[in-house]
Write a structure and sequence with these properties.
Blueprint (H helix, E strand, L loop, with lengths): L27 H21 L5 H8 L3 H7 L3 H25 L4 H15 L1 H8 L8 H23 L9 H12 L7 H17 L16 H5 L1
């Protein structure tokens, strides 16, 4: 029998470094389903209130109940997503208005009409009681809207087009009240009046002011009280 030498039995160990794996991206159909759920929930919360059954939202979105719960574990999560999505679109509308170099008051008007279409101020108070209003996502979206709208109003005021005795709260309360259908009126039937009456309201914000307003301007702080 041949003799084995020690060096012939040496095995070299190789350390394999694991390659980090990227987190899988959501499938396109899963993203579409989530968007459809949020869109359907926004419509139904506006029409019927935040307590609308989730299975009705699933039916309008064209998905199964399990798909809704897979994306949103509870009602609060869905309500928060709806509110934040509306706020995000409103932020983009304000950013677009600020990027325009034309008439400052017309840019403010375009923003207000877009906010009315989103039902930003009509939707948020209606659903705010269903979840934590201090949630970081909502707080961040709210701060962005407030800052951008304040800049829009400052620009119109500096151009001498916006009356001096109005503030952010005056504009947003007006949009809220005019984009919310009157009691006993079908939501969709009242939509045809929104932009007409909103324009009447905006015309009243133009400078020079034809009359003095009672009370004081409504600020962001007033809205948060």
């Amino acid at each position: 029998m041949s003799e084995l030498h020690p060096e012939e039995c040496t095995v070299t160990a190789t350390t394999v470094t694991p390659v980090p794996r990227k987190a899988p991206r959501p499938r396109a159909d899963a993203l579409r389903n989530r968007e459809r759920i949020v869109a359907a929930a926004r419509e139904m919360f506006t029409e019927f209130g935040p307590e609308v059954p989730l299975d009705e939202i699933a039916r309008r979105a064209g998905v199964g109940n399990a798909t809704v719960y897979r994306n949103f574990p509870d009602r609060d999560a869905l309500v928060r997503e709806v509110v934040c999505s509306v706020m995000d679109r409103t932020v983009r509308a304000a950013e677009q208005a600020l990027s325009e170099t034309g008439d400052a008051f017309e840019a403010l008007e375009r923003f207000a009409h877009t906010a009315a279409d989103e039902r930003i101020s009509a939707l948020c108070p209606m659903v705010s009681s269903t979840f934590d209003q201090s949630h970081p996502d909502l707080e961040e979206a709210r701060r962005r809207v407030e800052a951008l709208v304040a800049r829009l109003m400052d620009r119109a005021r500096e151009a001498g087009q916006l009356r001096d005795d109005v503030e952010y709260g005056d504009l947003m309360v007006g949009v809220a009240q005019l984009s919310r259908p009157p009691a006993g009126t079908a939501c969709m039937n009242a939509d045809r009046f929104v932009h007409r009456h909103l324009q009447l309201f905006l015309d009243g914000m133009r400078a020079p002011a034809p009359s003095a307003l009672p009370g004081s301007a409504v600020t962001v702080e007033d809205l948060r009280r």
